[in-house]
Amino acid sequence: MTSPAGHSRRPFPHRNLLAISQLNQYEILELIDRAEAMIPVSRQQRKSLPTLSGKTQINLFFEPSTRTQASFEIAGKRLGAQVTNMSVKTSSVSKGETLIDTAATLNAMQPDVIIVRHPASGAVELLSQKVGCAVINAGDGAHEHPTQALLDALTIRQHKGRLAGLTVAICGDIANSRVARSNLLLLGAMQVRTRVIAPNTLLPRGIETLTSEVFTDMREGLVGADVVMMLRLQHERAAGRLIPSVREYYRFYGLDAEKLQLAKPDAIVMHPGPMNRGVEIDPAIADGPRSVITHQVEMGVAVRMAVLDALLADPTQVQA
Amino acid sequence: MSAPLVVRNARIVDPASNSDRHGAILVRDGRIEDLKDGAPQGEPEGATIIDAKGLLVAPGLIDMRVFTGEPGHEYRETLATAAEAAAAGGVTSFLLMPDSTPVVDDGAIVDFIVRRAAATAKVNVLPSAAITRGLGGNDITEFGLLKEAGAVALTDGRHSIQSAGLMRAAMSYAANFDLPIIHATVDRTLVGEGVMNEGALATISGLKGIPAEAETIPLARDLQLAALTGVRYHAAQVSSAGAAELISVAKRRMGPISAGISINNLALNENDVAPYRTFFKLSPPLRSEDDRQAMIEALKTGIIDVIHSAHDPQDSEVKRQPFADASEGAIGLETLLAAALRLVHSGDIPLTTILRAMTQRPAEILGLPSGRLATGAPADMIIIDMDYPWLVKEAEIVSRSRNTAFEGARMQGAVMQTFVAGRSVFRHANWQEGAK
């Protein structure tokens, strides 16, 4: 593997990273490889590369987030970029007005990249049409969260040595999860066998177009899985409407030791965070030996460094 | 007294009399005085003669679902600008929805619309009145007084009445005054946060879906209540195969039931929405191709009676938004006929059937003397070049708002000239009729 700074000077053929659906398997692999090469940077004493020196990065978050925002901020800073964080409160009345207005305002400040999280599906793409710089989707509604899927894939590959041929079970609130969609698209493109597991009320119509298999019985869905990926349940929203109660949900869809033993003996457990311990996952599992959850967080920084580098650092970058 | 008008050398297509023939139309005092086959012998003294050059002459279109911004949101559309757009699209009468500010739920506001339209609009504006006060879905309006003021139908426009009990009362009382109830059936609890047709496309886009049952469940309720009360009931806008089945059954069993569909649901499908194109965010949502095919079949077999434009002007402020936050609706008066002719050119629907759904049937449902080319009928007529090629361009839109679902669409067929009561209200820039 080449050194991070000198890694792959091939141009990355996209101006923005808006969705996994816009990438082919070679581009996905390229980003995962680049991210893997970035890992040592964060593990050394002097955690910096000069590749984004002089560039301006804006983190524009219309939805509260601690870890994703911090991850993008650290990634940018480790590459030498100037990073500004903006959290925009969205009133239910004028979400979009804020979005377009903010886009025009920020664009005038000549940033090199804007990283956007927004509660509405498609909002980041809309914003990308209004600015002249690169845009990275840090999560839009229930649509996509591409860097999460990339960091999940890198984590899996680090533990399993490969992606193709594995069986990954994604369990939880599929209907409202952008993490699930991005992961299903990425894993599908990399020849991974995917399963989704959820009660019917959390399975959106037509989900079978995105996944190899659909299970409503978690036990059946876990049998033989190499990876168990749990999703956060927005239980305040779901309780009483989509599920009767947290305790019933935990009984049937919470990951505990007994259910986990149905997966392969070396199966790893993942979670995009933040976790609801005792809602979707037993604390003993979350903090146990098969959990790779903190490793995911570390890979998050590497993936975001790689994406920033791919979009911004290539001198021969193709405009798309 | 204006000069008589003769339109000759025309292919006269009149769905109401099932006729398609070559001939001439004589108009006097705003009405059709005579229709003649072949070339007319001797024209009246001082008559204006128009040579249609063999083009098609049809009754002016009657559009049963039009929103404007007057009163209240004149920057979107006024009655005058909507009428300009209508004339350009061959629409000589439109039913104005009551969704304005203030809502058309009081005789004085109906009166305002009637007077304002007479003073400013170049086509016939037919006011509808709200079924419930403020479109709130709770209390019925003064149907009798509204009718006296000039309302021709009752509808809650974009809004859908959720309470079966209230709907029953409204239907019973409307039957008293022989006013039709026109209702867009939407179960709000099934729509929830839905913004497009439910299915794989919505799921991939991360958008909440609207199931067809949100339309069919209240429709089934309405059809039963219509049978109970005997009201003239028009299902304002159906979009799903299930709705067609319900109406088909109801029509066989009971009396005055009719159904309408937006041209958007006949010409477009859910694939047009992707990716997040808010000009295609409509109510009802664009459905699957299977549903669209079922709607074409339902139109052909007479289950669906009426095609309307669902003209709904919205400004860019409310349309240039993330999909879930954007307003619903698209303009359509100018593209109604051309989009409908696509279905004729593609061989899906016969010409007479398409025209009937925009002329004869709306006239019958609303009790109008127009919508036909017959002696004594108002001389609301259009000259259509069935093959005229054109491109829908935003810059050439007549309507005050630009939210068309047909931007960039290639059309075959255009209105060359539009007459309201024998008066020319629109002439296509490239139309040189043989006028003398």
Could you characterize the architecture of this molecule?
The complex is a heterodimer of chains A (320) and B (436). Helices cover 39% and strands 14% of the residues of chain A. Chain A has twelve helices and nine strands. In chain A, β1 (56-61), α2 (67-78) and β2 (82-87) form a beta-alpha-beta unit. Chain A is of the alpha/beta class and 320 residues long. By secondary structure, chain B is α/β, with parallel strands linked by helices. Chain B has helices at 79-88, 107-120, 143-149, 164-176, 188-191, 200-205, 213-229, 241-253, 263-267, 289-300, 316-319, 336-345, 351-356, 360-366; strands at 5-14, 19-28, 31-37, 48-51, 56-59, 61-66, 91-96, 124-129, 153-155, 181-183, 196-197, 209-210, 233-235, 257-262, 306-308, 381-391, 410-420, 423-427. In chain B, the strands form three sheets. In chain B, strands 1, 2, 3, 4, 5, 16, 17 and 18 form an eight-stranded mixed sheet that branches. In chain B, α2 (107-120) runs parallel beside α3 (143-149) and α7 (213-229) packs parallel to α8 (241-253). The longest helix of chain B has 17 residues, at 213-229. The radius of gyration of chain B is 21 Å and the shape is globular. The model of chain B has no long low-confidence stretch (mean pLDDT 96). The A-B interface holds A 21, 95-97, 99-100, 118, 120-123, 125-126, 140-144, 178, 181, 204-207, 209-210 and B 198-209, 211, 275-276, 317, 320-326.
